[in-house]
């Protein structure tokens, strides 16, 4: 059976522009512990969650109202053996209008079921996208990881 990349889709009542702006407000839905710009093409930002997860993302595609793509430059999980699992994968947000609503198709290209981190990452991405990002878009308030201390 071939590996399938992690994908989830949500639909919201806001416009593609509002969705695009919310996606790029990474501190508002993923983590307040982000260093660097999250909305500038070819720039990188660092994500940190306790001593559990660190990664460096580079924004490689930024098409307002349509698409956002991050390239994982580096990654560390404290709970897996193969630290290369996320490296050089892509995190893709595809935005499309569906009548009066907007659909967001989230894909972590390269995050596949054979990876040791898959189930934990599946659960985490599902929560961040279907709950935190969706709430940020709909209400202006997501549930990102808070800054430690």
Query: What is the CATH topology assignment?
Result: Alpha-D-Glucose-1,6-Bisphosphate, Chain A, domain 4
Shape: globular
Count of DSSP helices? 3
Strand content: 35-45%
**CATH level 4 superfamily:** START domain
Instruction: Give me the strand/helix succession.
Output: EHHEEEEEEH
Q: What gap, in angstroms, lies between the N and C termini?
A: 45 Å
How many strands, which pairing sense, and closed or not: the largest β-sheet?
7 strands, antiparallel
Indicate the CATH class. Alpha Beta
Mean pLDDT: 95
Poorly predicted runs of 5 or more residues? none
The total strand number stands at 7
What's the domain count? 1
Describe the structure concisely for a colleague.
Helix content is 23%, strand content 37%.
